[in-house]
Every structure is written in C-alpha cells, then in structure tokens.
Amino acid sequence: MKKSYIILLIGIISIKGYSQSATTPPIEKEWDVSIYGFVRTDYILDTRKTVQVREENLNLYPLDEVLDANGKDINKTVQSNFLSVTSRLGVKAKGPNVWGAKTSAVLEGDFFGNLEGSTIGLFRLRHSYVNLEWSKTTLTMGQTWYPQYIPEVFPGVANFNTGILFNPFGWATQVKLKQMLSKELSLTFVAYKEREFTTPGPGTQNSASINSALPTIHGQIQYKGKNVLMGLGSEYKSLQPLTVSNALATSEKAISSSIFGFAKYSNDKIAIKAYGISGGNLYNLVMLGGYTGKTITGGVETYDPIKTTAFWFDVSSNAKSIAPGIFFGYTKNNGSSDDSATATYINYMRGVSGTRVVDKIWRGSTRVDFKKNKFRISPELEYTVATWGDLIKNNATASTNKKDVNNFRAMVSCVYSF
Questions:
Q1: pLDDT tens, residue by residue, 146-162
Q2: Mapping DSSP to helix (H, G, I), strand (E, B) and coil, where does residue 284 land?
Q3: This protein's superkingdom (predicted)?
Q4: Nearest Cα to 144, choosing from 180, 177, 176?
C-alpha cells in the first residue's frame, strides 16, 4: 500500500513539474557567449601572374605584359598554391540591457595576416564592435565593415576576393546610427576613420586620415521587404596627407565624394544581386583609383581625386544541396580632373606600374556549391581581363599603346563551418 502511495505522489509531482515547465517562459540568460567560424582551404591555379595578396590567395588583376630580350612575356606563367590562412574564428556576446537597449558584441579575426611575408598565418583583427539596440534605433561602435560593403548584398563567388575591385571591401573603426523609419525602411549615418587598405600617399600609413579633423561622413537609405532588398548611399571624405610640404606648413586636403546603389531579390529557388558605385579616391575600398599630388615650384602639394566607376551582378541558386552561380564585374579608371602643363604630378593610386596604368578591368566567373550539413566544397572557374595603357601622369589615365592581358583561375574552396 505504501508503495502505491509513493508511486502516486511521484506522479503528481511529475505532472506539476511538467505543467510549470509548459506554462512558465524560460528565464533569459543575462550573459550569453558563443563561438563561431570556419576552417577553409583553397586550391588555386592561375595561368598568369597577377597583382595579388597573400601568396596568390586573393587575386586582383593580371599584371601588364613585360617582354624579355627574346620577346617572351615574363608574366605569362602558370602558378598554383594551396592555402588555409582564410580560416576564421569569432566570438559573439550578449549581456544585460544598457539604458533600455539590448547589448551585443562581436570579436572576429582570421589568419590572413596584415602584410606579405612573415605575417601570413598570423591572427588578424577583422571585427571588434559593440551594438546597442532599442526598438527602432541601433548604435554600433567599433571596427566593422566599411558602410559601402553590404553583408546581405555581396557576390557569392567561391574566390576569397568576394568580388574585390568591383565590390567595396574592408573594415573601419566607426560610429554608426541606424534608425528604422518603418518596418521595411531604414536610414543609416556613419562617421568613420580609414585604417585598412589606406591610400599610399606622401605621409605615413593612416596619417592622411589622422591629420584630418573631419572623419568620413556616410549616409544610406535602405528598403528591406520579404524578397527584396535595395538601397542608395553617398559619402564625403576629407583626408590631409601632409602637415608640412616643401618645408612649408600645409592644410591641403584630398577631398572626394561617392555614390552607390544596390539591389537583391531572393526566394526559395534563386538569388539575384546587383551593385554599382562611382566616385573619387575609392582606394581604401580595395578598388581602382586614389588621388594625384600636384606641385607647382615654390608651392605645397595639392590633391585631386582619381575617379572610378564599378558595377557587378550575381545570380545563384538557393538550392540546399547543389547551388550553381555566375558573376560578372566591370570597373573603369576615369582619372582626375586637375590637369596642368606647368606642374609636377605624382599618382597615389591602385592600378599603376611605372609608366603604365590600368584603364579598365572585367571579370566573369561560374561556380557550383556542393553543400552537406556544415560542409561545402565549391569549384569555380574565373576569367579576368585588364586593359593596360601608357600613363598620362597629369590625370592618371591611359592614353595610347593599350593592351589587354588575361588570367584564367581554376580553384576549389573547401569550408567546414561551426
């Protein structure tokens, strides 16, 4: 009999416990920390030497034709490499509310290194920022993507370059304020200082940004619906490369502006993305351009932005197991507008080599993502063509003797995410 009472008592307690767990909401953790990242290996084959980063892992554009004494192009040579330095590790943290806002933070890096040579394989900071999120307002402080890089709208290529030269790339320490105007419409303002991939001007690294009291000012409007994402943005940049020029105090600025737009349509079967940007001194976004330095005898160096135009589109399948995709990108060096026959010019820019300069570049690629759980293997074929020409230093454009050179890249990317 006692045994029956005991069994009945246990049953009542179990039912009561079940009832409480079913009706009582779970207690939200005050602190939550999670680790994420991926292990990645790329197998690469190129048919030509390119302007590249980290032992050919990230290719930008083919090198110009250079002939030896026998008339053979020394840059037309097949190269290959296997690399795992793009493997990534990150930490996400959530904590108690601050001033009525939800708080979160991200700290992320990879093993890409910051410079060629000895730093390859060393840990490199990518993101380090804090978010304060209210019901309609989000404040971000720290290092994260340049605001021209849209995480939801970037090329889905297998190549680690993620469409670089056609799509902006890089990080900056910033303060960003995002305001929701409605459920679908948002307005974002950003003030940032360049740090990554800065223009190689006449001063030291990052001195042009540090010398300028005014940070780069950026504004962006974005619409995000169920299947559609689109937006427009613009920014104003003021850099001061030098405080002393030709033994004279100077406050000359390299002033530039840019505009861009993007769109994405996505459903269960397909994703279609497009992006376009035009403006001066886009060097920090790992794109063509920069600025020219002009000096008149007895004066200080003055600056004029080199303008660049770029666009791309990407179409891919959203299938869960096998997802093919295609990409096309185009960029053009439009040069600067300051042209004087009596001045001395220096070109602080990407896309110049001695007396030769890049006029335009286009790239097409096709890929297939084979996916299973957290593992993905992606073979990709990529073809890039660069048009080189003789440099006009006054406006940083290509004039005569233009020549197309190309590189064919075959690669396989293997990624295990966690």
A1: 999 999 999 999 999 89
A2: helix
A3: Bacteria
A4: 176
Distance CA 197, CA 114 (A): 10
Two tokens at 38?
Answer: 């991926």
Quote the tokens at residue 209.
């940004």
Short-list 221, 152, 224, 153, CA closest to 184: 224
Domain-by-domain residue ranges, the chain? 2-417
Question: What pLDDT is stored for residue 9 in this prediction?
Answer: 41
C-alpha to C-alpha distance for 206 and 352, rounded to whole angstroms: 21
Beta-bridge partner residues of 197: none
If you search the block for the tokens 């990529």, which residue do you land on?
382
Place domain 2-417 in its CATH homologous superfamily.
Porin (2.40.160.10)
Using DSSP's 3-state secondary structure scheme, residue 208 falls into: helix
* Alpha carbon distance 290, 308 (integer Å): 9
Residues with Cβ < 8 Å from 158, sequence gap 6 or more? 367, 369, 378, 379, 380, 411, 412, 413
Judge whether residue 2 has pLDDT over 80: no
pLDDT per residue over 368-402, tens digit each?
Answer: 999 999 999 999 999 999 999 999 999 999 999 99
Mean of pLDDT over the chain = 92
